[in-house]
Amino acid sequence: MKLSxxxxxxxxAMYDLALHYGEDPIPLKKIAERQGISEYYLEQLIGILRRxxxxxxxxxxxxGYILADDPSNIMVGDILNILEGPIEISDCIDDREVNECSKxxxxxxxxxxxxxxxxxxxxxxxxxxxxxxxxxxxLCEKNKDLIKKESE
Amino acid sequence: MKLSxxxxxxxxAMYDLALHYGEDPIPLKKIAERQGISEYYLEQLIGILRRxxxxxxxxxxxxGYILADDPSNIMVGDILNILEGPIEISDCIDDREVNECSKxxxxxxxxxxxxxxxxxxxxxxxxxxxxxxxxxxxLCEKNKDLIKKESE
DNA sequence: ATAATCCCGACTATTTAACTCGGATATTCT
DNA sequence: AGAATATCCGAGTTAAATAGTCGGGATTAT
Lengths: 152, 152
What we know:
2 copies of one chain form a homodimer.
Chain A lengths: L4 H15 L8 H8 L3 H13 L3 E4 L5 E4 L8 H9 L25 H15 L4 H22 L2
Antiparallel strand pairs in A: 1-2
Chain A binds a DNA duplex through helix 3.
């Protein structure tokens, strides 16, 4: 059970843009380099994100991409939903079992997939790009302190 | 983002066995029919579950499968882990970015995949086969009441 | 003996993931 | 104007995983 790289790459790229929000547009090449992703492949993914309105593009020399909105308004879940498709764990319609409960249109396992889906949604819809940036900066601070102490 | 059918089929089959726990062994053919799964395909899956000690098999005529343990001791997570493999959402080692935080061995997105994994684990490790059976029986009761009222 | 059933390994077809590429279009800089 | 830099678009490729199929052997109740 695993996520595809689409979602991973998409979140990484968007996070990279979030780190530079408010600055000049970032060309894809830079993002791909920094995040260790194939540039050509990322091109496809960011194309999707652009069409969905999550990033804006500037063509031509000095062009690149910027976030279409404030990082605090973009949730990880938004990105994953678009790149991975909605979480459709099961297309479960199980009605063959004609027994004492025959009238029940019910798949015993369906509830489990629903619970899993909800749990994932809760997580990814609660984390914004800004949260990720904050976490990163916090870690940097801690690290600086650590280096400082080491050199004392 | 979706689960493979392996996990779905496996849970369905185990649930079927749980419904008949304590009775005679159930042949694979019955399970496959009732749950709407290819018998040959299910054969592979249940083979894995047998080797891992989750079900016991009886060969020969009147043979079949039974749960190796009480349904309350078998968690949905156990089944999924074996059939889908552990949840390895990302094999994220991202250390290329040499900037002001260069000493930090840290992947910005890693925390997200960890959180997702934990959320899924929490769900599937909290649901036993017995829970599923209870849910089903509860639903049957409700349904009976409903039919009763309708006929009044 | 025979029918039912598990057991095992190999085979195949389909789909998906993960890239790769060629060339068109737009923009800036010199 | 022209070169360089980028986005934009669609198509092609490769490799792996998924899902399913099959043949035949071993075991056991009737």
